[in-house]
Write a structure and sequence with these properties.
This is Chloride conductance regulatory protein ICln. By secondary structure, the protein is of the alpha+beta class. It has a domain of 151 residues: Roll (PH-domain like), CATH 2.30.29. Helices cover 21% and strands 26% of the residues. It has five helices and twelve strands. The strands form three sheets. The protein has an eight-stranded antiparallel sheet. The protein is elongated. About 13% of the residues have low confidence.
Length: 238
């Protein structure tokens, strides 16, 4: 359903109000070396699963995602990259009119974190969700890449502190959609590590400890050294 920005409590959705516009552009935090990466006109915002705020202009900076409600408006919303848990291209149109960028935000940075479990269940939203819906769907891939590039400039300060996996589980497509080059490489390295064969020295130690461990269960089933006069590559001659 359509919703007026002034009737929305931004903090309920992990966002903050933004009104610092000058000459139609957001005023950036120069002392934080914030720069504009790219802007996208005609991008609608949907909060949760039903609060459609209409179309506006989206500004992606090196630190934040800022949305201006309408051209010339001094009302908007923003979120810092470090408070975006994940983002992905979503083709499900149940909560948006078109394919969009789906984002989950950090609950602990907003009043959403103060919502009780019962209230969250009643409202149907366990995590702050935001959908960015470009009017021109052909810009979706470019917007996604810009978000990825700027997110890489703002690593989670808590990364590396916790070894436990998070509470969210995604399929391969969702995970790889948000993974950057280094993340993809790390994933592949992890998978490779699960398939590592023991080194020759380690294998020799295993054989010495248990000589029968690597023997064929049926000695008579061992392949002959020759088959029809052709050396068997698995049983080379000594």
């Amino acid at each position: 359903m359509a919703a007026a920005l002034q009737d929305i409590n931004a903090a309920d959705f992990g966002l903050e109000d933004f009104s610092d516009f000058a000459d139609g552009m957001p005023v950036l935090e120069e002392d934080e070396d914030e720069e504009l990466a790219k802007s996208y006109p005609a991008v609608a915002v949907t909060l949760g699963s039903s609060h459609d705020l209409g179309s506006g202009t989206l500004y992606v900076t090196t630190r934040r995602v800022i949305w201006q409600a309408a051209a010339g408006s001094r009302r908007g919303l923003y979120v810092e990259f470090e408070h975006i848990n994940m983002h992905a291209i979503a083709s499900d149109q149940s909560a948006a009119r078109k394919p969009c960028i789906y984002m989950q935000l950090e609950p602990s940075t907003s009043a959403f974190a103060d919502t009780t479990d019962a209230e969250a269940e009643e409202e149907g939203d366990a995590t702050p969700e935001v959908r960015l819906v470009p009017e021109d769907s052909s810009t979706l891939e470019d917007l996604f890449q810009t978000l990825c590039d700027c997110a890489a400039l703002n690593p989670d300060p808590g990364d590396g502190d916790d070894e436990e996996d998070g509470d969210f589980y995604y399929n391969e497509e969702e995970v790889m959609a948000g993974a950057q080059g280094e993340q993809r490489a790390a994933m592949l390295d992890h998978y490779d590590s699960l398939l590592q064969m023991p080194r020759a020295s380690e294998l020799d130690e295993l054989v010495e400890e248990d000589p029968d461990r690597f023997e064929d269960a049926e000695g008579s089933d061992q392949a002959p050294a020759h088959t029809d006069g052709v050396p068997n590559p698995m049983r080379p001659e000594q």
